Amino acid sequence: MPTQWSDSFRQSLNRLAEALGNILVDAFHYLALFAIGGATVWSAVVAFLGMAAKGHASIDDILLLFIYLELGAMVGIYFKTMHMPVRFLIYVAMTALTRLLISDIQAHHRPDMGVVLVAGAILLLALATLVIRFGSSRFPSPAPEAHDRH
After folding, report:
1. pLDDT of 38-66, one tens digit each?
2. Helix or strand or coil: residue 141?
3. Sign of CA dihedral 133, 137, 141, 146
4. Max CA-CA distance within the chain?
């Protein structure tokens, strides 16, 4: 009889600890998502106000706004699905490299090996996106259950 009571108490304690742990993890996720989303919006607004103060927007500025857009979309998708969209990280990297490439060419006005290397990196990221898209369509992951974390 005492063994049943101790096992029952242990199971109840484990359920309570798991429930409390899930609440804390969810709270951290939401807090972190709101902080990242807020920082993204804040940075985008500051960048936009800087463009407005200059009176014009360069291609660098526009690509920077696209980076903020992709980061915001990534936060939104993660908020809705709780899954990190890796493709969006690759899109951000491609946009950042494109921005670097354009600003380098505008500043130096001469093509060199750095241009080829950055273009090659963009090509590799594009191929990585193709592989990820092919893999996810050919080998889809199983549909998550409604409460797979709880």
Report:
1. 999 999 999 999 999 999 998 889 989 99
2. coil
3. positive
4. 85
